Amino acid sequence: MSPYQELIEKKTALSVIGLGYVGMPLAVAFSKKLPVIGFDTNQEKVAQYLCGIDPTKEVGAEEIATAEIHFTNNEADLKKASFHIVAVPTPVTVDKNPDLEPIKSACMLLGRNLKKGDILVFESTVYPGATEDICIPILEAQSHLISGKDFFVGYSPERINPGDKVHTLESIVKIVSGCDNETLETIAQVYELVIDAGVHRAPSIKVAEAAKVVENSQRDINIAFMNELAMVFDKMSIDTSDVLAAMATKWNALTFYPGLVGGHCIGVDPYYFISEAEKLGYHSQIIAAGRKVNDGMGEFIAEVAIKELIQKDCSVKKARIGILGLTFKENCPDIRNTKVVDIITHLHSYGVEQILVSDCWADQAEVSKEYGIELTPETELKNLDCLIVAVGHDAYCQFKSTDLQQFFAASSDILVDVKGLYKENQKDFHYWNL
Ligand SMILES: NC(=O)c1ccc[n+]([C@@H]2O[C@H](COP(=O)([O-])OP(=O)(O)OC[C@H]3O[C@@H](n4cnc5c(N)ncnc54)[C@H](O)[C@@H]3O)[C@@H](O)[C@H]2O)c1
């Protein structure tokens, strides 16, 4: 019986290693077709899942509570599965080099529990070559099995967009790759069970790895170009969004906007590519420049707010500044690598003492653990001299001028609109947008 047949006849199971923003939607989708083991080393997370709690808000508590997934942090349970999907984090270190520790440790524990005939697919974003050069040797050493003979490896990058209810797992074409044609075909068939949009068979694991890291680098560079334009247009007193609207009337114009680039994908993945290119003797210029521009946007926005305060004769030190939105993007509780924190850090560096941060999606406990910030309830965001709306959560997009005016002190009205949400109401405020 083929590995695919064994799976669909439920004689074996599929495991997902790493149940976060990527792993949990996969586990839930596959659990509708196959027996699924959901493994995570974080005991607290597994306990939450067992209680039907969804901290990422990606699939919803009800889906988790009703999904037939065997949640576990006991690695021996992985032996019950023969098809494994790895979706553990791939962050960067403080000096912006790939931090492969989570993926290496996932390979160690998978290797200890590997059986002959098993298929493993890596979904974590890595640089081209990482699966074959880093993961396979660990798996072989731990299992005493041989890759390509006893067990088989593939790579399928994840392209979901947390918080986006249109581009969901099922509706995005999935790139799949395998160590040989037979493995590629099995991996493609397994993903076709859940991906309505279909799969794209990449010719090699390296190509699939590269496709992911460059699609995010391409986005990073394009946003960096917009950010550079926005900084220059600010000096020229030209509204960038007006320029982009005019430019967009050409048939081949690309639609990108300036903004903060945080999170642990677009703001991180390009470093994987830069670092690997560097090892091969190529010093990246375009990708590295894009990263530098985007990483500087928090400082730029903080400086804008300071300038506006000075122009309005408001004491910077005594100013009461409110920030709406802390997560790295809209409609999602993810605060990892959020660039709103850069705005806060730079405001502090100018001596601003009162910075009140509010976010309708972020989790208070996580925010204080990660950044030592105490969130302010939106209702207490009052008597402000300046309001910075940093994230375009749907709830903030609804605000009318009268709602926004509630946040300000009687004589103040400095509105720094990073996402350009209130352009139509600009006449009601001392207004700036990116
Ligand atoms: N979040 C996204 O939007 C997104 C999109 C596409 C690709 N990716 C990539 O997918 C991967 C996972 O990202 P994520 O956002 O789901 O991360 P996440 O932090 O939300 O989830 C990862 C999970 O893995 C667990 N984990 C860590 N080390 C482990 C180990 N050794 N064994 C088992 N579990 C372990 C963590 O406890 C966590 O629950 C990353 O490589 C990321 O770059 C993420």
How much of the sequence lies in strands comes to 5-15%
Note the main sheet.
8 strands, mixed
Ranges where pLDDT stays below 50 over 5 or more residues in a row are none
From the helix content, strand content and strand pairing, which structural class follows?
Answer: alpha/beta
CA radius of gyration: 24 Å
Distance between the termini: 59 Å
Question: Class of the largest domain in CATH?
Answer: Alpha Beta
Number of domains: 2
The shape, in one word, is elongated
List all distinct small molecules, including ions and cofactors, that are bound in this structure.
nicotinamide-adenine-dinucleotide
Give the % helix.
25-40%
If you consult CATH, what is the topology of the largest domain? Rossmann fold
The CATH architecture of the largest domain can be given as 3-Layer(aba) Sandwich
Strand arrangement, largest sheet?
Answer: 3-2-1-4-5-6-7-8
Overall mean pLDDT score?
Answer: 97
SSE string = HEHEHHEEHEHEEHEHHHHHEHEHEHHEE
Could you state the CATH homologous superfamily of the largest domain? NAD(P)-binding Rossmann-like Domain
Transmembrane segments: 12-30
GO molecular function: NAD binding; oxidoreductase activity, acting on the CH-CH group of donors, NAD or NADP as acceptor; oxidoreductase activity, acting on the CH-OH group of donors, NAD or NADP as acceptor
Protein name: UDP-N-acetyl-D-galactosamine dehydrogenase
Keywords: Membrane, NAD, Oxidoreductase, Transmembrane, Transmembrane helix
